[in-house]
Design a protein that fits this description.
- This is PLP-dependent aminotransferase family protein.
- InterPro entries: Aminotransferase_I/II_large, HTH_trans_reg/aminotransferase, PyrdxlP-dep_Trfase, PyrdxlP-dep_Trfase_major, Tscrpt_reg_HTH_GntR, WH-like_DNA-bd_sf, WH_DNA-bd_sf.
- The chain is α/β, with parallel strands linked by helices.
- It folds into three domains: 15-78, Arc Repressor Mutant, subunit A; 107-138 and 382-488, Aspartate Aminotransferase, domain 1; 163-376, Type I PLP-dependent aspartate aminotransferase-like (Major domain) (Aspartate Aminotransferase, domain 2).
- The protein contains 14 helices and 18 strands.
- The chain has helices at 15-28, 41-48, 52-64, 142-152, 170-184, 199-210, 225-233, 250-256, 277-290, 345-354, 364-375, 378-405, 430-439, 471-485; strands spanning 68-71, 75-78, 107-108, 111-112, 128-129, 193-196, 216-221, 237-244, 247-248, 260-263, 293-297, 322-327, 339-342, 409-412, 419-424, 442-443, 445-446, 461-465.
- The strands form five sheets. Strands 6-13-12-11-10-7-8-9 form an eight-stranded mixed beta sheet, with helices on both faces. Strands 14-15-18-17 form a four-stranded antiparallel beta sheet. A two-stranded antiparallel sheet has the order 1-2.
- β10 (260-263), α9 and β11 (293-297) form a beta-alpha-beta unit.
- The longest helix has 28 residues, at 378-405.
- The radius of gyration is 24 Å and the shape is globular.
Length: 492
C-alpha cells in the first residue's frame, strides 16, 4: 500500500477533515505526484483504524475540489495540480495588449460613461478591461465540450430537438444535486432544482412565487443591482440594509418588516465580505422566527483561494427557509446562460401548482451537454484547474495593486471570486476617475451604482476583475492607471 502517515487526533476536529487536509498538503507539496493511486477506502480505513465513512468523506472532499479523480473500477488517482504552469514573470516582459470594443460604454454611478475621444474625433480604444465578471476563456475545455455537444446531437438522440422538462433536464438536475451536496454542503434532491437562463430569470420566478405586488424584499446595501432591478420591476418594495464588517445587519433586517432577503454571503457583491458562521446562524434564526425566506446567491462559491470554503447557508438550514441560487456563468462561461435554484419543499409545492406551465428558458442542448460534462468528471476537473489559475491571477493582482497604488488605496473583498474591490483615496468622484481611465484606454468599474442610498463620506470604489486578463495585462493596465490617476490621488 502507498506509504501514508497522517497524524489523526480524536476530538480535535472531524477525522475526515484531518485526513482530507493531510492528503491535500501532500498533493500540493508534490509528495503525491500526478497519477498516484490512493489506497482503497477499505484498505485505508483498516490501516488507520477509522471508519470507511471517514475515508469516503475525505476522498469526496478531495474529489469535489479537484485534487483527485475517480476512475471507474480502478479507484482514486491524484490529478495534475500544476497543469497550467506559472503565469510568467511580471517584470522584464513586454506587456501584452488586448483590443476591446472601440467606443464601448460602461455603466457607472447610474450613468453611462461618455466614450473618450482622440484628437481626430475617433473613440479611444480600450486596451485593458478590468470587468469584474469576465472569465478566462482561453482555458475553456473546448474539445471536451464539443465532444458532448456532438454526442447530444446524434440522430438517434433527436428527442433533444423537442421541448424538455419544464424544471430542467433530469440528468442535469441529478448531477447538480450530487455536486452541490459534495462541494457546497447543499441539501437538495433533483426534484427541488429548477434550471433557467440566468439569475434574473430565477429571481423573476421567485417574484411570482412570493405573491402580490407591494411586498417588501430586503437587500444588502450596497448590493447586486441586477437583482434589485428585477424585484423593482415586479412591484416589490426594496429595503436596503447596510452592511456591517461581517455582512448584513441582522438587527436592522428584523426592524425592516421584510419577509424576504436577498444576500451573497460567500463573496458579497461588491464588498467581498465572506459572512462568518455565527452571522449565518443569526440570519437563519431571523428566518425561523419571522417565517421569512433567505435567497442565498452563491454566484462564485467555487472560488476561494486561501482557507477552506465556508459551506453554504442552505446546508445549515433545518427549517426550509433558504432558497439557494447558483450559476455556471463564472465557473464555466456566461454565454451558455444556465443558472439554477434549489427550492424548499413548501415553495416547491407552490411552484408546481402555479408555475407548472412555464416553459424552460435555458437551451436543452446546452443542458444535456453540461449534464454529460458533469457525469464524466470533466466539471470537477475544470473547477480545480480554474481555481488554481484564478488563485495565481488573484495573488498577482493584489501584488500589482499594492506595488503601483499601495499608499492611495484600500483593498477589500480579496481571497474569493473573480474580482477585488478597491477604495481609492481621491477628491475626484468614481465616475470622474473612470472617465480619466477610459481616456487612457483603461476600463474600470465603479461600485456606486450598486448603492440605493447616497454614500456619505465614502471614497470612490471600484471592482477590479482579473479573470479575463493575463498577469502582463494586469501589470500594464494598472501601471497606466497609476500614471493618469497620479495627479488626483492622495495618501490615506
Amino acid at each position: 500500500m502507498l506509504d501514508v502517515s497522517p497524524h489523526l487526533v480524536e476530538g480535535k476536529e472531524a477525522l475526515y477533515l484531518q485526513l482530507y487536509r493531510y492528503f491535500r498538503a501532500e498533493i500540493q507539496a508534490g509528495k503525491l505526484s500526478s497519477g498516484t493511486r490512493l489506497p482503497s477506502v477499505r484498505a485505508l480505513s483498516g490501516f488507520l483504524q477509522v471508519s470507511k465513512t471517514t475515508v469516503e468523506c475525505a476522498y469526496h472532499q478531495l474529489l469535489a475540489e479537484g485534487y483527485i479523480e475517480s476512475r471507474e473500477r480502478s479507484g482514486f488517482y491524484v490529478v495534475d495540480v500544476e497543469w497550467d504552469g506559472p503565469l510568467g514573470e511580471r517584470l522584464g516582459k513586454k506587456p501584452a495588449q488586448t483590443t476591446g470594443a472601440v467606443g464601448a460604454s460602461a455603466v457607472a454611478s447610474g450613468c453611462r460613461q461618455k466614450a473618450a475621444e482622440q484628437p481626430d474625433g475617433h473613440p479611444v480604444p480600450i486596451r485593458y478591461d478590468f470587468h469584474q465578471a469576465r472569465v478566462d476563456a482561453e482555458h475553456f475545455p473546448y474539445e471536451r465540450w464539443r465532444k458532448y455537444t456532438n454526442q447530444c446531437m446524434q440522430k438517434e438522440n433527436r428527442n433533444v430537438l423537442h421541448y424538455g422538462d419544464r424544471q430542467g433536464e433530469p440528468l442535469l438536475r441529478e448531477e447538480l444535486a450530487r455536486y452541490l451536496s459534495r462541494a457546497r454542503g447543499v441539501q437538495a434532491t433533483p426534484e427541488q432544482i429548477v434550471i433557467g437562463a440566468g439569475t434574473q430569470i430565477m429571481i423573476s420566478l421567485l417574484g411570482f412565487l412570493f405573491g402580490p405586488r407591494g411586498q417588501a424584499v430586503a437587500m444588502e446595501e450596497p448590493g447586486y443591482n441586477g437583482v434589485r432591478f428585477v424585484f423593482a420591476r415586479l412591484g416589490f418594495d426594496i429595503c436596503p440594509i447596510r452592511l456591517e464588517e461581517d455582512g448584513i445587519d441582522v438587527e436592522a433586517l428584523g426592524k425592516s418588516g421584510a419577509r424576504y432577503v436577498y444576500i451573497t454571503p460567500s463573496h458579497q457583491d461588491p464588498s467581498g465580505i465572506v459572512m462568518p458562521y455565527g452571522k449565518r446562524l443569526k440570519l437563519l434564526q431571523w428566518a425561523n422566527q419571522t417565517g421569512g425566506y433567505i435567497i442565498e446567491d452563491d454566484y462564485d462559491g467555487e472560488f476561494r483561494y486561501h482557507g477552506r470554503p465556508i459551506p453554504s447557508l442552505q446546508g445549515l438550514d433545518t427549517h426550509g427557509r433558504v432558497i439557494y441560487l447558483g450559476t455556471f456563468s463564472k465557473a464555466l462561461l456566461p454565454s451558455i446562460r444556465i443558472s439554477y435554484m434549489v427550492l424548499p419543499q413548501e415553495l416547491l409545492a407552490i411552484y408546481r401548482e402555479q408555475l407548472a406551465d412555464y416553459e424552460q428558458s435555458a437551451s436543452r442542448i446546452h443542458q444535456e451537454t453540461l449534464a454529460l460534462f458533469m457525469k464524466n468528471g470533466d466539471w470537477e476537473r475544470h473547477i480545480r484547474k480554474m481555481r488554481t489559475l484564478y488563485r495565481k491571477k488573484h495573488d498577482a493582482m493584489l501584488h500589482i495593486l499594492q506595488e503601483q497604488l499601495g499608499p492611495y488605496i484600500l483593498l477589500k473583498g480579496q481571497d474569493a471570486g473573480l474580482s477585488v474591490t478597491v477604495e481609492v483615496s481621491s477628491d475626484r468622484t468614481a465616475l470622474e476617475l473612470a472617465q480619466i481611465a477610459a481616456a487612457a484606454g483603461v476600463r474600470v468599474y465603479p461600485t456606486s451604482h450598486k448603492w440605493m442610498e447616497p454614500q456619505y463620506k465614502g471614497l470612490p470604489a471600484f471592482q477590479f476583475g482579473f479573470g479575463g486578463l493575463t498577469t502582463e495585462e494586469m501589470d500594464a493596465g494598472i501601471r497606466l492607471l497609476q500614471k493618469v490617476w497620479g495627479p488626483y490621488l492622495r495618501k490615506r
